[in-house]
Each structure stands twice: as C-alpha cells, then as structure tokens.
C-alpha cells in the first residue's frame, strides 16, 4: 500500500489540493459490455484501421507522437466523422463509475481537474452531490468565480468534454490554438499550480501541457513545495523519474499495477481516512 | 405500544443523535407513530428535535405542562395528575415529543426519598417511583415511545427503567464507557433485589400488589441491545481497522457485554444492533438544522462529498431501525 506523505494529506484536508484525473482513472470503468474507455493510443489506432495509406501515421503512433498523428487522422476522416467517433467512444458508450471514482470523490477536494473527454467522474460527482458541483472547461470565461472554494466544488475539464466535441483539445493544432486563444485559462492553471498542491492520478509524465506548465514554474520560481503523481511501479525508469522530478518538482508515488491497479484504489481509500482524521483534528483545534 | 429507554451511564456516546435519528427513521420508513419523552434534565433531545424559537416559546408558555409538572400532585400526596404533559410535534423528524425540563434534576430528591419508602413497601413510595410508568401507560395511541435519559444511575433514571419495556445502550469504545457497563450491571441487580423485597413487603402489609394499568408491577426490564459509536479507525488497504489502542478495550468490552447478556438472559448475537461512525461531519449540521441526518440537503448547508456522508449516515440509522423493527414488531 502507498504510504502517503503528510504534506499531501494536509493539503487535501485543508482543500489546498487540485486532484488531476488522467486517462488511467477512466480505465477503471467498464460499460455493460465490459469494455473500458480507449486510451489515446487505442483510440487513434482504431481510427487508423478504417483508413488507407497510413504507414506514416502508424509510425507517428509508434513513436508516441500522438498529437501529430491525431492531426493527420482528423484531416483524413474529416472533422464531422472524427467528432462522431470521439462522441461514440467517450460520450455514448455508457461507462460506469468505478470504486476509484468514489474514493476520489470522498477526498472532497474543492477542485478536481481532468484532461479526459469522457464524463464518468463528472456524472458520478453530479449525481452524488445533487448536481451541486460546478463543471467548467477551458472555454469557460467565469472559472475564476469558483476557485476560492468555500461551499463550491469545481470540476475543470482542461481539454474539454465529449459533450461539446467541437471544442475539445486533441490534435497538435488544437493544442497550439488553445494556448493562444485561451490564454486566461492557462493563467488560471498556472496560478493554481503556484497556490495548490497537485495530485496527479492515472496521468502520464508526457502530457505536453502539464510538462510545460510545471517546467516553467519550476524554473521561474525556484524552490517550491512538491506536487505528487502516482505511477505504476516500473512503468518509467527511475533515472527518467529523477529528471522529471527535478525539472517539474513532482514527487512520484509508485504502486503495483497487479489486479487492474487495485492498489491505487485501496490506497486512496486509506488516504480518505487519513484526510478525514486530519480534518477532524483541524476542526477541533481551529488550526486550519 | 412498546417503550424503550436509551441509557448509558457514560455521556458523550452519541445517545441523543441516535435516539432522534432512529425515531425519525422508524417514523418515516416504517410508518410508526413515535413519541420521544425527553427525561434527560439536559434536554439535548428537545433542543435537537425543535427549532430554537419554537422550543423557547413552549418553555416560556405558562400553559405548557412540563414533564416535571407531572410530579407536582404526586409530591403533594394527591396521586397522579389527570392532565398529561404537553405533547408537541417535530415537523422535520416526523415524531412527537414531550419536552424535557431542567427542573427534573431537582426531582431526584423526591424520587430518592420516596425510593426509601418504596423499599419499605409503602404505597406512596411506589406511586412516586412508578410515575413514569403511569405516564407511559397513557400513551397507548403510539406504536413506540422512546425515552431519552441522562447519564446517571440516579433515582430518576431508575424510575424510567422501571417503567419501560426495554433498554437500549449506546456505547463508545473508551475506558469509561467500559467501566460504565460494569456499574450498570451491579446497579440493576441491586435495584431488582430491593424491588422484589419491596413488592413482597407491600403485599404483606396491604394484602395486594401495587398496580399500574390494572397490572401487578414487577421487575421485567428487557435488554434490547447496544449500538456502538465507531472508534476512530485507520484504513489499511481499503479496510477499516481499529486503532491499536482500542483493540484491548474492545476485547474487554465484549466480556462486559457478555455479562450484561447473561444478566438479562439474551443471546449476545441478538443484541449487536449496529454501529454509527464517529467522524460524521454532518452531525453538527443536522443539529444546527434541527433535522434528521438523512434528510439534510443544500438548504441545510450540505456541500461536496457531505452528500455522500448524508446518505451513508442514513444507511447506518436505517439499518439499525430495520433490526429494531424486526425485533419488536415481527
């Protein structure tokens, strides 16, 4: 089991933590047919299988240059078909929430952010909370109104949602365009990273946005508290992690990927109890 | 009608939260007509069940018959009063209530003095000691009467325990709660012996037994069970575990409960009614809203994952009320 640092327990207890849910969290879900949401790579491969003359695209995928591959695929399929495919996979497939979503929800963080297009967590959180969560994305102009927490719980869809598929950030062009078109949104993410501890769950170290953001901050502001990211043991070599840790100020927390990453869900349940304990003490002592 | 006293000699075991939420759960889910009698001079149940202004209005109303006023004619040697204490409605809990009275703590003197004459087999003593039983006997239009009691082994609680059909014990895992169970066993034993002697004396002197509702009084208190307020826990691998320091107490407490069960001749497996978690952040909000934990919503200040806490707490209370309902009515 993961032994959680006091600093992340405290950050969550004081609601000074942004929990970031990556594709790995959605992979815990299945639909009625037992299918899990596609990873980025799977999704692109599925798209490619219906196209011809795709060797160069396959090469890009195997080199993990998903952004360029996605750009080419979207161009080949046409925006309409591509959008249809995204909605079919991430919006209409009927994925059900898993135990990990319940544990994350119980951490009761005031801000949860996610680059996932699917709405598994958002739907679960809305139904659990009598629709009292506020869901915003990079195109929203009033996110700042919800950042202060208090009695509000905010979910930020950083790359948009399959509910609104024309606005999602998926291809190389989307990324480039979003960075200039939604400058204010990226400023908000940056301010959050400076004032909150981020806990990345089910994310990779290779998201271009995240990488750039945290590298920028680290080199602009120097010594900062660590952010946290959980990773399956052995997925990334230690040397690589050390570089990432130094350049992005992220502490990596490893767990075993056995039994469908069960250890992560169970460890999050432990984290819920730890956080509750600290909140209880904070309330008693008035020292928040 | 069946009546249950909620009793533990140790305070701070979540008794008031338990009695009010269980009462409401039984009223709402099981459609029972439920009355709570607040016989705790601290009046916590009354303060929980009624909004502040409403409680204030009742207590300051000259026409209000308090529980304490029921004793006034008894004190004057005029027997039981004709008039009943005022019964009020808690709209959000869906139960009725006889409001508590801080003056009840002063009645302890009368009750203690008259216990001495009860022990001598004197009718007047029996009359005072059985005032609550007389009161309960007039509440047959209810399915269930729950009596909230203060945390003492004094004369007032003795007369409540002589009046109710069952007692239910809210417990928590701490050394004092553990010791309280020992005290309860020896006090009850003591009272039962004194009472049996007193009944025999009364019969010898008067030629008949003291009666309430045309029935001879006897010691027939039954132990309905206990509800454990859950200790602070650690979760290891997603499974809740007691903090180590508590394990010893839990073990010893099991022994005490076994003693209690054998004193009341019940099966230990039947008396475990359920647990209520301690770290329930929604309890203070429910007190503030004067509403059952399971019916709290946004208008009562519920935010974020407290919605989950509200439904979890609901499940705990509803499952205990299911067990109680099955034990009492099926």
TrEMBL record, chain A:
Protein name in UniProt: Uncharacterized protein
From TrEMBL, chain B:
Q: Which CDD domains match?
A: ParAB_family (cd02042)
What is the originating organism of this protein? Marinobacter psychrophilus
Any idea where the AAA domain is?
1-199
Q: TM spans, by residue?
A: none
**Gene3D superfamilies given in the database record:** P-loop containing nucleotide triphosphate hydrolases
In Swiss-Prot or TrEMBL terms, this protein is called Chromosome partitioning protein
Superkingdom, natural source: Bacteria
């Amino acid at each position: 089991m993961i032994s959680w640092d006091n600093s992340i327990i405290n950050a969550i207890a004081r609601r000074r933590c942004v929990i970031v849910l990556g594709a790995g969290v959605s992979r815990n879900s299945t639909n009625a047919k037992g299918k899990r949401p596609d990873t980025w790579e799977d999704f692109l491969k599925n798209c490619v299988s219906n196209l011809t003359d795709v060797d160069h695209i396959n090469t890009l995928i195997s080199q993990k240059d998903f952004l360029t591959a996605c750009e080419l695929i979207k161009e080949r399929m046409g925006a309409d078909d591509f959008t249809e495919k995204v909605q079919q996979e991430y919006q209409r497939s009927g994925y059900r929430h898993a135990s990990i979503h319940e544990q994350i929800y119980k951490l009761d963080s005031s801000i949860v952010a996610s680059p996932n297009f699917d709405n598994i967590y958002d739907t679960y959180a809305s139904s659990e909370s009598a629709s009292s969560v506020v869901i915003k994305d990079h195109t929203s102009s009033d996110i700042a109104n919800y950042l202060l927490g208090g009695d509000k719980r905010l979910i930020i869809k950083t790359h948009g949602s399959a509910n609104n598929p024309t606005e999602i950030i998926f291809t190389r062009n989307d990324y480039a365009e979003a960075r200039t078109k939604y400058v204010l949104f990226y400023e908000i993410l940056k301010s959050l990273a400076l004032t909150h501890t981020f806990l990345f769950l089910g994310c990779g170290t290779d998201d271009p946005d995240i990488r750039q953001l945290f590298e920028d901050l680290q080199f602009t502001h120097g010594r900062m508290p660590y952010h946290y990211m959980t990773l399956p043991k052995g997925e990334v070599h230690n040397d690589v992690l050390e570089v990432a840790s130094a350049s992005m100020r992220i502490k990596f927390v490893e767990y075993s990927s056995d039994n469908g990453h069960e250890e992560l869900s169970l460890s999050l349940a432990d984290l819920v109890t730890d956080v509750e304990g600290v909140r209880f003490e904070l309330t008693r002592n008035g020292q928040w | 009608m069946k009546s249950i006293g909620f009793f533990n000699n140790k305070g701070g075991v979540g008794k008031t939260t338990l009695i009010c939420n269980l009462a409401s759960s039984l009223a709402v889910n099981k459609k029972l007509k439920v009355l709570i009698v607040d016989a705790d001079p601290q009046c916590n149940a009354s303060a929980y069940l009624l909004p502040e202004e409403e409680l204030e209005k009742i207590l300051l109303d000259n026409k209000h018959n308090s529980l304490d006023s029921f004793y006034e004619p008894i004190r004057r040697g005029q027997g039981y009063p004709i008039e009943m204490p005022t019964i009020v409605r808690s709209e959000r809990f869906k139960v009725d209530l006889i409001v508590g009275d801080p003056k009840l703590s002063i009645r302890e003197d009368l009750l203690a003095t008259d216990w001495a004459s009860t022990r001598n087999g004197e009718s007047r003593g029996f009359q005072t000691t059985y005032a609550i039983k007389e009161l309960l006997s007039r509440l047959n239009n209810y399915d269930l009467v729950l009596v909230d009691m203060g945390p003492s082994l004094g004369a007032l609680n003795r007369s409540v325990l002589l009046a109710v059909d069952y007692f239910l014990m809210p417990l928590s895992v701490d050394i004092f709660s553990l010791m309280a169970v020992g005290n309860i066993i020896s006090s009850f034993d003591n009272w039962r012996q004194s009472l049996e002697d007193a009944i025999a004396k009364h019969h010898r002197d008067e030629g008949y037994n003291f009666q309430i509702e045309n029935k001879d009084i006897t010691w027939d208190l039954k132990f309905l069970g206990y509800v454990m307020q859950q200790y602070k826990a650690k979760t290891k691998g997603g499974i809740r575990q007691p903090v180590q320091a508590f394990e010893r107490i839990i073990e010893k407490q099991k022994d005490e409960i076994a003693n209690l069960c054998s004193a009341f001749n019940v099966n230990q497996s039947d008396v475990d009614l359920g647990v209520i978690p301690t770290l329930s952040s929604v309890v203070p909000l429910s007190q503030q809203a004067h509403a059952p934990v399971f019916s709290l919503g946004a208008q009562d200040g519920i935010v974020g994952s407290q919605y989950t806490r509200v439904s979890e707490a609901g499940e705990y209370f509803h499952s205990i009320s299911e067990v109680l309902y099955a034990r009492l009515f099926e």
